[in-house]
Amino acid sequence: xxxxxxxxxxxxxxxRGEGADLPAAAGADSFVxxxxxxxxxxxxxxxxxxxxxxxxGVDPGRTVHRRPKVELTEDAVMLLVKTVWxxxxxxxxxxxxxxxxxxxxxxxxxxRGVVDPAEGVRKRLGEADFRSEGVPGIVQALFDAxxxxxDGAIEDLADDVSDLEQAVFSGLRVDRNEDIYFLIxxxxxxxxxxxxxxxxxxxxxERRTGQAALQGGRMQDVAGHLIRIDGAIETCMSLLTxxxxxxxxxxxxxxxxxxxxxxxxxxxxxxxxAVAGIYGMNFTHMPELHWRVGYPAVMLFIGVVCFLxxxxxxxxxxxxxxxxxxxxxxxxxxxxxxxxxxxxxxxxCLPSRTP
Length: 355
What we know:
alpha+beta; 7 strands
């Protein structure tokens, strides 16, 4: 036994029954919608068999982490899409499933996951104009709701990618490879949820689906929206790949800087070491050992040579000092703040930066 709805011009009637009740429940001007949330397999199979949709052969009740899938036959449509939501606290992309089976006269939907696109669509069933669109209207509204969730998730993901990019190029010497790889993995999961639907979106734009449920002006808009989201995901992935390459180059530069600094200090340390080695050879005739100014002269010589080496290495950039307490981004922000305070008349013309 499961709940289903009979939708007609007069309104929505909620019923409870078995799969065998579905074909007779709909009239000439009404249709049946059976919506399953984490369904038991027997009820789902019974509903699909009763409506003649079991030949589409997808089991949303058991299989997890499937790729989106579209099956179009002469008289039926099966549309399996991934629902997506983004957890800002952990920077994770989570996915669920929404499967739609329809032959134009009845509709079976199966949901798995936190996001429920059907919730808002059920509320719209109170509008007579929306009910008059029939099953195609509901299918298009559900697809639109799923794509709208994509839109919110990609905005949050793009913000995190932008924040990571700023952190990488902030000037702080912090290894962020793990953070970059983590966001690449989450972006890839998002891409796997959206990209398989792009061919369908192009078919809808070119009016080649041949199914009433996938045609119409609204579906054209949803298809265009989906294609734009796929492009935004590609942009995030490209940016992350570029940031990863640049960051690995940064790490190589940091290592080279460290090696140059070590080499410079080692060269400076060689001078007193060499002098001490010479005067530690215990030769019998070393006149400098008997000079009254021998010791001060040798110390002055060591100091002068070390100072000249230090000055030369400093001028050539071999003795770099990197401030780990303040990034270049923060210094630029402070500098821009001083400039704006110094020229108040230009303040309204300067672009604002959101933190």
